């Protein structure tokens, strides 16, 4: 699957309607972002069941602010609407595939149970 542009208007629907969504926060002026873009695009073609989104931090400042993006590129991975990975900096092809594999292998029932336990402890 090729990458898709995500905006404030499409963000929620994209996260809710897809099991795994990887988001690349980037900007046109960012050198490392430009270096990472072809890697991200290439890897995206190998995963039909994963949405590879791109959020332009200049055009989508509201989203960048919401997720407290302080440096770019920042990669964020959602699975079942839960942020499982958030890291600034570039990954190479192999590293990106490793992170995706780990996210795919996670037992989400355990993750959701842990979140529920943490929320209950905060109340």
UniProtKB/TrEMBL annotation:
Superkingdom assignment: Bacteria
For this UniProt record, the keywords arranged alphabetically read as follows:
Disulfide bond, Electron transport, Redox-active center, Transport
Q: Where is the site Contributes to redox potential value?
A: 31-32
Q: Which residues form a coiled coil?
A: none
The residues covered by the Thioredoxin domain are: 1-105
Cystine pairings recorded for this chain = 30-33
- Which residues does the Swiss-Prot or TrEMBL record annotate as the active site? 30 (nucleophile), 33 (nucleophile)
Q: Which PROSITE patterns does this one have?
A: THIOREDOXIN_1, THIOREDOXIN_2
Q: GO CC terms on record?
A: cytosol
Classification via InterPro entries: Thioredoxin, Thioredoxin-like_sf, Thioredoxin_CS, Thioredoxin_domain
**Site-annotated residues for Deprotonates C-terminal active site Cys:** 24
GO molecular function term, any single one: protein-disulfide reductase activity
Question: What family does the entry list?
Answer: Belongs to the thioredoxin family.
> What is the name of the protein in this document?
Thioredoxin
Gene name, per UniProt, is trxA
